[in-house]
Amino acid sequence: MKPLWKRLYDWVDERVELVGLVEFLGKKYVPVHRHSLWYYFGGVSLFLFIIQVITGILLLLYYKSGEELAFESIQFIMSKVQFGWLIRSIHSWAANLFILAALIHMFSVYFTKAYRKPREMTWVTGMLMFFLALGFGFSGYLLPWNELAFFATKVGTDIAGALPFIGKPVMVFLRGGEDVTGATLSRMFGFHIALFPGIFTVLLGIHLVLVQRQGMSEPLGFEGEPTTERKTMPFFPNFLLRDLLLWLLVLNILAILAVIFPWELGRKADPFSSAPAGIKPEWYFLFMFQTLKYIPAQVLFIDGEVLGIVLFGLAGLLWTFVPFWDRRSSRGERNRFTNYIGIFAVIYIILFTIVGWLS
Amino acid sequence: MIGNIESDMANESRIASTDESKRDFLKYVLGGGIIAWLAAVLYPVLAYLNPPKQGEVEVSSVKAGKVKDIEKDSGTIVRFGNKPVILVRASSGEFRAFSATCTHLDCTVQYRKDLGVIWCACHNGKYDLAGRNIAGPPPRPLDEFKVIVQDEDVLISKKA
Known about the structure:
Chain A is mainly α. In chain A, 69% of the residues lie in helices and 3% in strands. Chain A has a two-stranded antiparallel sheet with strand order 1-2. Chain B folds into two domains: 1-50; 61-158, 3-layer Sandwich (Rieske Iron-sulfur Protein). The longest helix of chain B has 48 residues, at 2-49.
């Protein structure tokens, strides 16, 4: 008698022919070189996303949306529900670590030029997921309906409202009215738990299929080396086991952070109180927030914040389409220009984040 | 013979051109139909996304409190309909009221006793006690409201 798992495997195999898949996994190799470390950050981002889905579903069992219910339901989760504080803290911490891991993944792909032909679509789907991740952060931030979130959402949606022509309708669409109210909370809740996860899952599917189909990108110059000198590692099980070990490590870090630094809830939002002193957005919006502080109210007849969003929008667009304008990397040539842009972006973001943090 | 062939070719091209115009006609009907169908599906969805206008409570004036209860050199947020208004009492005892919504990015301002200005915590915008934007990113002064002291009550109303 065959063991149960073997019989199960045969049952499926008989119907859908798993041979091809098994053969594919057996032949998948990961290049080994001095930049191999960066291959792990995509996997870490994926792991943190999975954590978000699981803890998000758990929070949904008790969370109630609505001006009069949201704050109180999170208070309930954190004080009455067994381990509710842990689940909520992990969700908040994992959200931040997810953005961090995705940022590292994005910059490492950028600097190793892994976006070059034929991986343009992998890069673009990755960028779209990154923008969605920021959307997840922004929409999720309001859900506890606390003071900081209330004003952050006012500012964030008002910035969208400053866009020429489409600004006003976009702002009303995001707020569900003229002002930030319970209607805004309902919308953000819908975006956060239905719209964004749906789109994200489709993009993630495409992204992962492309990575499997095309294999890992090798750094420029690696292709020139003779095949005998290229070192590789089988994906299954060698790389996968390393991946899993790192996931376990990340889960431990997450648990430590959530236990030692539980996420605060703050004070309930009150539309008739002043914005509290020291109010700041989440760290990943801080560099843009700090830039807005420095742009004067009017620059050559253009409103300061309009100039700010137009500039950041253009920068984001250029960044997303780097595989299409960096032709030299696609031809396998060195392109220092894109490196300089990348270094400028990293320095700008780090510098303005620190200044924003300190001020 | 040759004439026959020529007329045959002419016939064929005529048939081809009526075929083509028939096909064009069908293309327009189908294409137009698809566009009309899309519009019929999308219009209700887009209209649904646009939130209905909520009947705003029309308020012409509100009572902010009694004169003796409001300290000199202080500011409070007063609910005016569904908008916040800041009532400032200068150290001279004079009352002033402005819309509390910062003209920069919609935050709610507060009175800073230490600086003697109206201040927005979000982006460090400052207004003087006449509501004029004096520092930071605010592009416009705060809208002013009228303050009337009637007997002991402080009343705030919209400027005509």
